[in-house]
Structures are given as C-alpha cells and as structure tokens.
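Saturday, quiet lab. Running sequence design on the structure tokens for the scaffold JK sent over.
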C-alpha cells in the first residue's frame, strides 16, 4: 500500500513519513520543486514534484494511494505583505480543499488532515482545553491561525459530504528533524545557546514529534471520520521549558520575567526593522499577543479512543538538543 504524505520535507511531515516507512508501508512524498529535502535523505521515500496550488500535480500525487496524510502547511508567524498573506490562505485553505477532493476523486479510502491546537478555544478557568472547547474565527490571532481555522472548517464540511477524513490537532512538537527551525525550535536553540536570558508568562503543551507522528497513524487506523483529536503531551510554562533546555546545556535558567507590556513594543520595533531591511524579526506582534494566554490542552480523547500515548517530555527536549547539536545549530 502506498501512502501519500504532504509536507514530508518538514518537521511533523517527516516524522510521519519515517513512522510509515518503519511500519513497512510504501511512502510517496509531495515535494515542491527546489525544496530542502534533507529530512528525506536515507529513507525509502518516493517523491512526486508538485504544489498544493497546482491541481494537476495533486492528481498525480494521489493516484494509486491507499491513504493520504495531509501534513503540509504554510507555517509562518511573519508575513511582510499582502502577497505573502494571500499565498498562505491559498496553500492552507484552498490547497487543503483541492488535495482532499483530488484524493476523494481518485478513490482514496482514508485520509488524515493535520490541523493544530491553534484552532481550538482556551478555557478561562485554567483547565486544559480539548477538542470541544469552543472557538470562533474572531478568536484567532494572526493569519496562520485564521488560515488553519478556515481550513479545518473546509475539512469538516468535506467529511460531512462523505470524504473519509479524520482531523488531528497536534500541540507543540519538539524533537529531531526541525530543519527550519520552527518558532519553538528556534526558541529551544536560543535557550541551549544562552541567547534567551528572559521569559514572558505563558505556557505551551509540549509533545515529542515522534509521538505526534504515531498519533497520525493511530488516527488513520482508529479515528472517526470528521472527528478531531488533540495530539499533545505535557503542559509547561515557558519558564519551565527554557529551564529544561538550559539545564541540558549546563546553563543557568533565565530568571527575569518580562511583562507583555514591555515585549509588545519591542515586537513592533522588530517588525518595523525587518520591513526596512528585508529580514525576519526575532519576535512578532502575533507571537507576543499569543503569549498572553497559557495554551494548555489535554489529549484524553486521543488516549481513550486511539490509544495515543505521550512519552516523558524530558526525552523530547533531549532528542531536540542532540539533533540541533549534531546538525550545527548550536553555535
């Protein structure tokens, strides 16, 4: 059986592809022309060149597949102009619709769509949120979250119309293969190298990327069509996360807590400088606004219905640190 994985050159997609190969399945990756393919090196993964905005390439990619894992997304917290924002919505919303319809048209019997906990609501009482915590488009901060929210609505509509797709909502994955790196990976690198001397009062749910990948396979095997499943791990404050990373590097954890009222103006300045220089800001306004809330979640539904399990979070940080060190990021 051949399984198509979109986003297989990226962090979570590569972990899903590796897990499928380990299960003895044939894996085909939809890869954009000119993309960095180092996450595919050394693995028995076939490639087909294409793009979520190219319908003909999607038809080629899904042909003959027994399953589709749609992991690809335009994941950026910094969009410098209207063209970049339009490109994100075309990929994340329109591209998701086009891929799933192509797969349905080719008779693919089962699909998994990778959403995000970013689409879920947060509870005001501090209790970790779950799949049923309500949210609206107005709650979404930034274009990435809005695009994923709209894409998930598309997926649920398609599932209602008979497309056999299950939704997974990963929290914050950590581990090997974070090539770009992601914003979380960049934060971990900064903590390991001592470039993160302070923190803000926020929190994240951290999960090993390989557990998130296994959760995708469990959703494919056992998930209910149209239902979503949080794939998470351990809820941690940012201070705890940075402290864990600093300890791995033999450094002192950051001790200075910065109020959001101080960090937000700095983010505006960083974005302004990035626009002037054509670079990428070290922090964005959307990231700071998101940090005002602790993004804590529970995977109880996935544990109960899929058999999902998350390992000790210390292993996620250790594996991430080892990978970043081995690949020259810690300089």
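Result came back. Writing it out in full:
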């Amino acid at each position: 059986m051949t399984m198509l994985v979109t986003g297989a050159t990226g962090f979570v997609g590569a972990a899903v592809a590796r897990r499928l190969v380990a299960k003895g399945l044939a894996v085909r990756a939809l890869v954009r022309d000119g993309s960095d393919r180092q996450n595919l090196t050394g693995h028995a993964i076939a490639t087909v060149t294409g793009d979520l905005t190219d319908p003909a390439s999607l038809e080629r990619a899904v042909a003959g597949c027994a399953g589709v894992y749609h992991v690809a997304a335009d994941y950026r917290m910094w969009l410098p102009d209207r063209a970049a924002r339009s490109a994100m919505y075309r990929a994340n919303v329109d591209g998701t619709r086009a891929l799933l319809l192509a797969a349905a048209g080719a008779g693919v019997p089962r699909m998994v769509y990778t959403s995000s906990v970013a689409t879920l609501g947060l509870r005001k009482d501090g209790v970790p949120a779950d799949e049923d915590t309500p949210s609206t488009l107005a709650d979404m901060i930034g274009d990435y979250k809005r695009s994923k929210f709209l894409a998930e609505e598309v997926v649920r509509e398609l599932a209602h119309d008979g497309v056999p797709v299950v939704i997974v909502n990963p929290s914050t994955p950590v581990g090997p293969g974070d090539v770009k790196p992601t914003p979380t990976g960049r934060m971990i690198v900064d903590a390991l190298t001592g470039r993160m001397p302070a923190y803000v009062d926020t929190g994240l749910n951290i999960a090993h990327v390989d557990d998130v990948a296994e959760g995708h396979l469990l959703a494919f095997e056992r998930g209910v069509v149209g239902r979503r499943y949080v794939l998470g791990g351990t809820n941690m404050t940012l201070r705890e996360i940075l402290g864990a990373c600093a300890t791995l590097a033999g450094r002192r954890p950051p001790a200075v807590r910065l109020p959001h009222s101080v960090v937000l103006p700095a983010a505006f300045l960083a974005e302004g400088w990035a626009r002037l220089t054509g670079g990428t800001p070290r922090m964005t306004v959307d990231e700071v606004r998101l940090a005002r809330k602790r993004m804590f979640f529970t995977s109880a539904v996935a544990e109960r219905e899929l058999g999902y399990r998350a390992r000790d979070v210390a292993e996620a940080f250790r594996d991430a640190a080892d990978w970043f060190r081995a690949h020259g990021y810690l300089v």
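Notes for JK: DSSP finds eleven helices and twelve strands in the chain. The two ends are 43 Å apart (CA to CA). Ask whether to fix the surface positions before the next round.
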